[in-house]
Amino acid sequence: MKKRKSDPSTWGDATKLVRGGLDRTKHGETSEALFLNSGFVYDQPETAESRFAGEDDGYVYGRYGNPTVTMFEERLALLEGAEACYAVASGMAAVFGALACQLKAGDHLVASRALFGSCYQIVTSILPRFGIKTTLVDGHDLNAWKEAITSDTRCVFLETPSNPGLEVIDLEAVCAIAKARGANIVVDNIFATPILQRPLEYGADVIVYSGTKHMDGQGRVLGGAIMSTRKFKDDELKPFLRHTGPSISPFNAWVLLKGLETMKLRVEAQSHAALKVAQALEAMPGIARVLYPHLDSHPQALLCRKQMKLGGTMVTFEVEGGKKKAFDLLRNLGIIDISNNLGDAKSLMTHPASTTHRNIGAEARAMMGITDGMLRLSVGLEDTADLIGDLMQANKA
Ligand SMILES: *Cc1c(COP(=O)(O)O)cnc(C)c1O
Fold first, then answer.
1. Do the Cβ atoms of 292 and 304 come closer than 8 Å?
2. What is the C-alpha separation between 4 and 2, in angstroms, rounded?
């Protein structure tokens, strides 16, 4: 195709999300092509030989790469300002791949304790089975990070804002502590999205995403991505992921590519609505506490404003009356759905203690501040007045 005279790295986010990584075929299709194939053929045996030798960067097999997947990876890397991106089958494949590819028996991992349920399982139960030592810290407490990260620490993993407590960790400070001890910093940036927060700018090394959430944003497919330097992708991710096989389906990558085109619009609109919903919840009777990064009442309000452009699409709140009152509110919702998914166009609410954070047990929930009256709301694209009205009637009923 005709080459345009415009450098993609100079584009704004919206342009990157619509046009980044676009690689049209000779047919000149407007939208990105979907290559729904697992294998590739070669016109000569020498071509196959040079591709397997890594001398020719053409495709060899779906588990190693696919042109639609490459477009998705390049678009995301461009947006994030990362050298490289590796797309995988789900957010959890991204979290596990980013950690397991660089850790071996005897290595030490330090992680924030306020983690998504499955991330918590990986850190506290799966990685230790392979001889990896792990330490959990209170992410707010910089002294705890300083004490836990030693010169033996290979890797630091954190989630900010956390799911569901919306705790915010000081990326600049924690990255500086970890860098000084030579540890690699992996950040789960799923709640913030690359639209609102760029951990690379604060010194993080590897960023992980679930494409399932805001990238798709319409509840259709699973996917994930790992952002890193080109060297980390070539030396650590490729050897681990190519042979263990958590590949993303080209169809899912194509849906996510199309989702990226509207991600900025959606995340910004959903974040503006979430702030209004959080403010309305603060004024409702029977609501004990509202957690939202850009509310003045957030325990780390200043840090939230420094690190995140907007407060994000998630609002967490606590009802007076524990699990019974929380379930009553869920039952009485007329528009918002009961669902553990998030980042969707449809507003979704979940009770973390009985669902996403059920398996970690009561003790770990208490440590993370997840109470029985806590509800997590993912604010969608409906009219904000309808959402506030739905919450008011469900809370009153
Ligand atoms: C959903 C989620 C994940 C996992 O993503 P999947 O695509 O469901 O595998 C990891 N971390 C956080 C913070 C999440 O919200």
1. no
2. 6
Cα separation of 73 and 87, whole Å? Answer: 6
What DSSP character marks residue 317?
Answer: E
With respect to residue 82, please indicate whether it lies within any of the assigned structural domains.
no
- Structure confidence by residue, pLDDT tens digits, 74-110: 999 999 999 999 999 999 999 999 999 999 999 999 9
Domain count, the chain: 1
Q: How far apart are CA 17 and CA 138, in angstroms?
A: 35
- What confidence tens digit (pLDDT) does each residue in 170-227 have? 999 999 999 999 999 999 999 999 999 999 999 999 999 999 999 999 999 999 999 9
CA of 207 to the centre of ligand 1 (A): 13
Burial class (CB in 10 A: 0-12, 13-18, 19+), 308: buried
Q: Residue 326: which CATH number? A: 3.90.1150.10
Pocket of ligand 1 (CB under 6 A): 90-92, 95, 116, 119, 159, 163, 188, 190-191, 210, 212-213, 222, 224
Burial 182-217 (b: 16+ CB within 10 A, else e): ebbbbbbbbbbbbbbbbbbebbbbbbbbbbbbbbbb
In a domain, 392, yes or no: yes
Q: List, in sequence order, every residue forming a beta bridge with 86; answer none if it has no partner.
A: 226
Report yes or no on 97 lying in a domain. no
**Ligand 1, atom nearest to 211 Cα:** 7
**Whole-model pTM?**
0.96
Question: For the chain, how far is it from start to end, CA to CA, in angstroms?
Answer: 60
